[in-house]
Amino acid sequence: MRIGFIGLGNMATAIIGGLLAQGIVEPGDIVGSAKTAATRERRAAELGIAVTADNVEVARQADVLVLAVKPVFFPEVVAEVRGAVDDGTLVVSIAAGLTLEGIEGLFGKPVRLIRCMPNTPALVGEGCTAVCPGPRATAEDEALVLRLMGACGAASVIPERLMDAASAVAGSSPAFVFMFIEALADGAVAAGMPRAQAVEFAAQAVAGSARLLLETGRHPGELKDMVCSPGGTTIEGVAALEAGAFRAAVMEAVAACVEKAQRL
């Protein structure tokens, strides 16, 4: 199996790194293209993969072609490579906001297509990827993409109507989490803790809390209540967050991401 990546940015690099770390493919099984020579040279040195400036060459070689470019560049990239994509090529998109129908329309012909939405924690093997097969993708195609995307974290199939929500709650939310960690650290610094230690404590608390939820399967409200002793310090902090409309602000942020994705 030959996997081609058009675009070698952070997300493509995370996926490739996961595939290699899990031994799903060898470096010689991957070819990627990037606009700049500096990016191509860096990825070749880091990952040991074949690189080229020629998108069409990548498409010709690939059994699985991952389109890892920004949505704004999709029309020109697809126009460039569509002649090299045939019935034997499985196309995987990781662009936010672009629907299966819209992408196939750019190709101007039927294609085996699967739409994915990974997130940046894939860079450390803790990603969360939504997978949505197109109507011409086979069950084998779906299983293959779940395996490929699962190499750098969790991967789940969802209907396309939920892709914008998945993009917000998984793709965009790491930015919100980093803001929360920064704010927690700022609060600790204000209370006298050194900055580096405050960031470490805040980040580990968030990581550990997420792991506790995932491994116990308990409702987040139940886990929150476990920390809130009657008359204790934590419930005072929760009250302060509620006074600041913390949950409403987070929900509005997710809604804003969904609305933006629908406009792309």
Tell me about this structure:
The chain is an alpha/beta fold and 264 residues long. It contains eleven helices and eight strands. Strands 3-2-1-4-5-6-7-8 form an eight-stranded mixed beta sheet, with helices on both faces. Strand 4, helix 4 and strand 5 form a beta-alpha-beta unit. The protein starts with a strand and ends with a helix.
Oligomer state equals single chain
**CA-CA gap between termini:** 33 Å
Percent helix: 40-55%
Write out the strand line-up for the largest beta sheet, numbering strands in chain order.
Answer: 3-2-1-4-5-6-7-8
Pick out the low-confidence regions: none
Number of separate helices: 11
Characterize the largest beta sheet: strand count, sense, and whether it forms a barrel.
8 strands, mixed
Give me a quick take on this structure:
The chain has 264 residues and is of the alpha/beta class. The chain contains eleven helices and eight strands.
Task: List its traits.
264 residues; single chain; alpha/beta; 14% strand; 11 helices; 8-stranded mixed β-sheet
